[in-house]
Specification:
With 421 residues, this protein is of the alpha/beta class. The chain has two domains: 31-142 and 304-360, D-Maltodextrin-Binding Protein, domain 2 (3-Layer(aba) Sandwich); 144-302 and 368-419, Periplasmic binding protein-like II (D-Maltodextrin-Binding Protein, domain 2), CATH 3.40.190. Helices cover 46% and strands 14% of the residues. The chain has 19 helices and nine strands. Strands 1, 2, 3, 4, 5, 6, 7, 8 and 9 form a nine-stranded mixed β-sheet that branches. The longest helix is centred in the N-terminal third of the chain and has 20 residues, at 2-21. The chain is globular, with a radius of gyration of 22 Å.
């Protein structure tokens, strides 16, 4: 009963978002598809995408509803458990999708129902593939990368250059601080933003794919000295984070960077479009976090951000498949990349935005999985939950790097098979 009331309240809060982006009701013979998302900031863009689809599919209308990011999972799960929910579902990737697929709430997709899937590489499809049955349940929509975003205007004004080593990176922070800027916008109030910081910094010190492959396979553990060392390097950034950084939340971080109070932010590629909407005059540059020596480190963490799937309880599966095929098309992928300034997951899409193109080029040169999301976010306690809470403890001086490693390892060993051998 409590969850039902929560769903009603949350749906009521989202009504105005639906009205803003829904097309005008058409003739009675039209089929209306409902489409749920967590991307409230992308409502106007999706309205444009939907109009393009409807122009060539006049017998279908699509009603797009966006919910608050932090509430979306609960709202969606509650609706699906009750046999309702939208026709089209924006799905989290990896473990976030898998729980819904295992419960039978999603329609499996293949190259017969969605021919465009044949062009997606296996690594991308893993983000929408259920490990239990090996089936694909969604069309991936975006690839995200994690690196340092920096304000080119501030750097040029102070005569600063992109760093080639970790020591140069820290000196960069000191120089920015001396000139009255917040060197790094990153805060710790929201645990997931510390996981993002980890994704940008840690791989350059735990060894990138060598460690990631070994720990996912169970050939090593999170007590590995390489992992602990990467946590110690993260702590070296504290002097360059905002004052009282453990009280700085995600929106605070965004505003600091967009308003040019902070000169750098370790962040995902999804931030570029947001920052440019908040400040059309901002000039953004990017670089990977360097290692101890020139040429070392420089890893860019990469992951599939999510996918689009079909509700198994939908009464309009045929029409939903037509829309899903549109979402798998190069036409949609190019619009997605151009309108939202995000890297589309659709093969054949070439980003016109120079910053996105640079991010993808850096990832092509030296990429590594966003570790906890890709490898350990399938059961509870998830790797992300453990990492986020322990990093908050570490940055608050309540936990040592060794304690962080042990809590992560012991927590994952409760369900992760390779750690139970």
């Amino acid at each position: 009963m409590r969850t039902s009331r929560l769903l009603v309240v949350c749906l009521a809060c989202a009504v105005f978002l639906t009205i803003l982006v829904s097309p005008v009701a058409g003739a009675a013979e039209k089929t209306e598809l409902t489409f749920w998302s967590w991307r409230t900031e992308d409502i106007d863009a999706y309205a444009k995408f939907i109009r393009v689809f409807q122009a060539s599919n006049p017998d279908i209308s699509v009603r797009f509803t966006a919910f608050k990011n932090t509430e979306y999972n609960t709202i969606l799960a509650t609706a699906l458990q009750g046999g309702t929910g939208p026709d089209i579902v924006q799905l989290r990737s990896y473990g976030g999708m898998e729980a819904l697929a295992n419960a039978g709430y999603l329609v499996p997709l293949d190259t017969t129902s969605v021919p465009g899937l044949a062009k997606f590489p296996e690594d991308l499809l893993k983000g929408a593939t259920n490990r239990r049955d090996g089936k694909v349940y969604g069309v991936p929509f975006a690839i995200q990368t994690i690196q340092v975003l920096y304000n080119k205007t501030i750097f040029d004004k102070l005569g600063l250059n992109e760093p080639a080593t970790w020591d140069e990176f820290l000196k960069l922070g000191a120089a920015l601080k001396q000139h009255g800027y917040i060197p790094l916008a990153n805060g710790g109030k929201d645990g997931w933003t510390l996981e993002t910081l980890f994704g940008g910094v840690a791989p350059s010190f735990y060894g990138g794919n060598d460690f990631a492959d070994a720990v996912i396979a169970g050939r090593t553990t999170f007590n590995d000295p390489r992992f602990i060392y990467s946590l110690r390097k993260m702590l070296e950034l504290r002097p360059y984070m905002p004052p009282n950084f453990m009280g700085v939340g995600y929106t605070d971080m965004q505003m600091m960077f967009a308003q040019e109070m902070a000169a750098m932010m370790v962040a995902g590629s999804y931030e570029v479009g947001t920052f440019e909407r908040l400040n059309p005059n901002i000039k953004i540059g990017v670089f990977p976090v360097p290692g101890e020596k020139a040429g070392e480190g420089g890893y860019v963490a990469v992951y599939v951000d999510g996918s689009y799937g079909i509700n198994a309880a939908s009464k309009h599966k045929e029409q939903a498949l037509r829309f899903i095929n549109f979402l798998a098309s190069v036409e949609f992928g190019q619009m997605f990349a151009d309108e939202l300034s995000q890297p589309s997951a659709v093969p054949g899409v070439k980003p016109k935005h120079p910053v996105l193109a640079e991010m993808l080029a850096l990832a092509d040169k030296k990429s590594t999985p966003h570790l906890m999301l890709v490898g350990f976010r399938f059961e509870q306690p998830s790797g992300s939950t453990l990492l986020q809470t322990t990093l908050q403890g570490m940055f608050s001086d309540k936990l040592t790097p060794e304690q962080v490693a042990e809590e992560i390892q012991s927590g994952l060993a409760k369900w992760y098979g390779p750690f139970q051998k």
